[in-house]
Amino acid sequence: MTGSLLEILNLLGKQSHAIDSGAAQQWAETFTPHGVFRSPTYAEPVRGREALTAFATAFAKNNPRTHHVVTNVCIDREISPDECRVKSNLLIVTTTQQHGSERVAINRITTVDDHFIRHEGVWRIAERIITRD
Questions:
Q1: What separation in angstroms does the CA of 117 have from each of 46, 51, 73, 95, 126?
Q2: pTM, whole model, 2 decimals?
Q3: Per-residue confidence of the chain (133 residues) as pLDDT tens digits?
Q4: Which domains does the chain have, with CATH numbers?
């Protein structure tokens, strides 16, 4: 599953850069067409690419200097060659300008549980569950 882990790491990196840069559609496309995003920060789960795109658009607009840093990524459970559970930690970091210098603050550290499946030959997230630690 080493090759799969590299593909998953690449997808998670692209996903973080996409939401941070406002590339909402690219972020949503890291999910399956009916993918689900669940977080205790939001009242309802976000379901499907259209809603995921709208979610990412709003997030980038309201958080212009936010960075998603994904770390401690591991395949928690291999279900089949085309399906696995991946666990990681996510740091939400914000940068601000203050008195001519940049300040960095870690706003949140969470645990991410992703259900990955191969969709049309490419790893995609079927469901993401964010938990606060």
A1: 18, 20, 16, 34, 6
A2: 0.91
A3: 667 999 999 999 999 999 999 999 999 999 999 999 999 988 999 999 999 999 999 999 998 889 999 999 999 999 999 999 999 999 999 988 878 888 899 999 999 999 999 999 999 999 999 997 5
A4: 2-132 (3.10.450.50)
